[in-house]
Design brief:
This protein is an alpha+beta fold. The protein folds into two domains: 64 residues; 90 residues, Sandwich (Immunoglobulin-like), CATH 2.60.40. It contains two helices and eight strands; from the N terminus they run ααββββββββ. The strands form two sheets. The chain has a four-stranded antiparallel sheet with strand order 1-8-5-6, with helices on one face. Strands 2, 3, 4 and 7 form a four-stranded antiparallel sheet that branches. A hairpin with a 2-residue loop joins strand 3 and strand 4. The longest helix is centred in the N-terminal third of the chain and has 35 residues. The chain starts with a helix and ends with a strand.
Length: 161
């Protein structure tokens, strides 16, 4: 796990542990408060681990798509993103690629979605196809996972091919 996820895991474990301890004071269940706290901490750790695995999987899939492109040219400076909107849980943004080349090209863009602290939440790849020379094309990129709160997007890599 990377550092941002350790902090989240500890925070979630503390919150869930406190909740479990408070609930145990009113419960007729046979579990002791310590057992409930342990179970809550384990559940929190499991959820954080699943989230980290999902982000790692999305990032690996994005990198795999980019690796398939042969003879691509770094075109990160040709790409810009609109502000992110979150609707129905999915974060979306419009990717605009301006073809600075002299022939029609497709742009393959890896976009990462991050929270306000810069922690990686998700990654996705989008193609902006058939952009004429000295013209712009657009595509919408959407997060793979449901995201909440303030989400920012950034271009990690962009290839013109």
């Amino acid at each position: 796990m990377t550092r941002p996820y350790r902090g989240r895991a500890m925070c979630a474990a503390v919150v869930l542990s406190a909740t479990a301890l408070a609930a145990s004071a009113c419960s007729d269940n046979e579990s002791t408060p310590a057992e409930k706290a342990s179970k809550a901490a384990s559940a929190a750790s499991s959820l954080v681990s699943e989230g980290a695995e999902a982000v790692a999987s999305a990032t690996a899939a994005a990198q795999s798509q980019l690796a398939k492109i042969k003879n691509g040219v770094n075109a990160k400076d040709d790409v810009r993103l609109d502000p992110v909107t979150v609707e129905g849980g999915k974060a979306t943004t419009t990717v605009t690629a301006t073809n600075s080349g002299d022939k029609q090209a497709t742009y393959t863009v890896e976009v990462t979605f991050r929270d306000t602290s810069g922690n990686l939440l998700d990654a996705a790849v989008v193609n902006v196809a058939d952009v004429a020379p000295q013209k712009s094309g657009e595509a919408t990129v959407r997060s793979n996972r449901d995201l909440t709160g303030t989400v920012k997007a950034q271009v990690e890599r962009a290839l013109r091919h």
